[in-house]
């Protein structure tokens, strides 16, 4: 991956906020993935998506905020995503996949459809897991250091 960016898309508002999507304004929280196809294929990214999605791909969400979807930027991506979905579906028997394959192209300035518009999430949401995992690891290390210091003083 060259980069990832967290944001919102798929809704009807031109100015969504994290608070408005939590109130179910029809936007979905999404991750934009920029990749070099000479390093990793789109199909490999889709395979990882399905691996990470698990049961979310087969269980409808009660809020648009968390719906499972793949937004594609070209007909070729759409066909690849659809074929990937069909491959996964063939392994699930009668369990339907609820993940949508949806068009997305925010570079077309003539298309004013807000559902195809990308909106960056606030900076506090960018790299959220990495930030919080690091903070959690630091707290754990600090706690362990405190325990070690206390143990050494007590013995």
Instruction: Kindly report the CATH topology of the largest domain.
Output: Peptide Methionine Sulfoxide Reductase, Chain A
| Beginning-to-end CA distance, first to last residue | 50 Å
* Main β-sheet, spatial strand arrangement: 2-1-5
CATH architecture of the largest domain: 2-Layer Sandwich
**Approximate shape:** globular
Low-pLDDT parts are none
Main beta sheet strand tally, sense and closure? 3 strands, antiparallel
Indicate the radius of gyration in whole angstroms. Answer: 20 Å
How many domains make up the coordinates?
A: 2
Mean pLDDT: 76
**Amount of helix:** 25-40%
- How much strand? 15-25%
Compute the number of strand runs.
Answer: 5
Structural class: alpha+beta
Number of helices: 4
**What is the chain-wise order of helices and strands?**
EHEHEHEEH
CATH homologous superfamily label of the largest domain: Peptide methionine sulphoxide reductase MsrA
Q: State the CATH class of the largest domain.
A: Alpha Beta
């Amino acid at each position: 991956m060259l980069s990832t960016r967290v944001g919102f898309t798929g809704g009807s508002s031109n100015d969504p906020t994290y608070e408005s999507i939590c109130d179910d304004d029809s936007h979905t929280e999404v991750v934009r993935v920029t990749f070099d196809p000479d390093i990793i294929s789109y199909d490999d990214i889709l395979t990882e998506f399905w691996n990470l999605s698990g049961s979310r791909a087969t269980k409808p969400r009660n809020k648009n905020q968390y719906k499972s979807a793949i937004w594609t930027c070209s007909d070729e991506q759409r066909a690849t995503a659809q074929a990937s979905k069909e491959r996964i579906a063939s392994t699930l028997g009668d369990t339907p996949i609820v993940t949508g394959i949806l068009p997305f192209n925010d570079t077309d300035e003539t298309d004013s459809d807000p559902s195809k518009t990308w909106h960056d999430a606030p900076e506090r949401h960018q790299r959220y897991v990495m930030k919080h995992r690091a903070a959690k690891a630091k707290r754990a290390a600090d706690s362990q250091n405190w325990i070690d210091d206390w143990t050494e003083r007590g013995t």
